[in-house]
Amino acid sequence: MRPHADIAVRRPPEGCILLVEKPLATTVADCRRMIAAAKANRVYLMVDWHNRWNPPFSHAWESIRQGQLGEVIYIYYRLSDTIYVPTKCCPGPGNLR
Fold it and tell me: N or C: lower Cβ tally within 10 Å for the chain?
């Protein structure tokens, strides 16, 4: 079963926005099919990934909730460790076939 790819390649309304949770697909071939279908149908295809369960983000949120950081006015948090994501955070999706 390839739920992301199967849904994305159906003909969605022209100009719609199709937001797909990461990973885009489980194979490179499915990614290419999805991209080709989006282009053919003039659809905006985007990938979303919420970091709420990612350990660095969840630890930061817990520290905020416990008041360890004081009053938080603004946060800019960027995950720049590109090795962490495919090897520790979500192994598997990085191994596209």
Answer: N
Report the range of poorest mean pLDDT among 17-21, 26-30, 33-37, 48-52: 48-52
Helix (H) or strand (E) holding 17: strand 17-21
Average pLDDT over residues 56-76: 88
What is the model's pTM? 0.53
Compute the distance between CA of residue 81 and CA of residue 16 in angstroms, rounded to an integer.
33
Which residue, 39, 38, 42, 35, is CA-closest to 14?
Answer: 42
d(CA 54, CA 70): 22
CB atoms within 10 A of CB 1: 5
